[in-house]
Write a structure and sequence with these properties.
Elements lengths: L1 H16 L16 E3 L6 E3 L3 E9 L10 E3 L4 E7 L13 E9 L2 E5 L2 E5 L3 E5 L5 E5 L5 E9 L11 E4 L7 E4 L3 E8 L9 E7 L3 E2 L14 E8 L2 E5 L2 E5 L3 E4 L8 E5 L6 E8 L8
Length: 285
Amino acid sequence: MATMRRALIFLVFCAALSRSAPAQTTGDRISLYFGDWHTSAPRVIRGSLEERDILTRGDGANPTRAGSVFRFINSYTYATLAAGASTKPARLEGQQEIYFVASGRGTVTAGGQTADLFRNVAVLMPANLEFTLKSTGDEPLAMYVINEPTPPGFRPNANMLVRDENQIPISSSNGFWAHIAKPLFVTADGLGTLESVVTVTLDPLTIGKPHPAANEDTSDIEEVWTALYGNSLALVGNQLHEQTPGMAYYHIPDNLTPHTNINPSGELQAKFLYFARYRPHETRK
């Protein structure tokens, strides 16, 4: 009951902040901007990698079905590789992938390099580089997978880039009031379409600042928040949605609908995987 009371206080507070946006998205349409891999049918790619959709290509301004929202990113999935299994060698053409390991252990091999995979390791797999994934633990290797197109004239990295989020220092602890951020990849690291891939943590009983404000120019944004752990609340427009691990939502690009994340727990942190493309930008040639 205490948690519910706190959530209601948050809701009233955030609703007051958003009263100046009468044309914001409300009602049943808000649910169209959410996706959850738990509710998606599996398919097998590259021989043995099982993937499930979280968000897919569509119309961010007017999605026709839940999760069909991307205008700039190709896809966002959750992939698992059974214990002991390996993928067939693959090469990405005109696209790149970012992997963020959720659980399990494994290895990734590309261009003569092999790196260990475990929870919170991120990999930027560039275009045109043959690679394989292998699950080496006693449980499946599970990963979030972002697939981005490479713009014309873009120069991809010559090698894969691996980052251990466990070893990355906190870059900010008060962004949007309460975001504890750790950057994984930015444009300079070799992203093609995206500009930022970050983990964001909320301490117990904290809330990020609701945004955007009315008339903020975010029409070209492609922004996604995924719950990694902790049962958080997503404020989107005039609604609170329980956001359990594996659920993601897409920032509504109408310049009006506020969004933020809330951690109603009095004891545990809540953690998110965030990625975004903010505006048309110069990519590496």
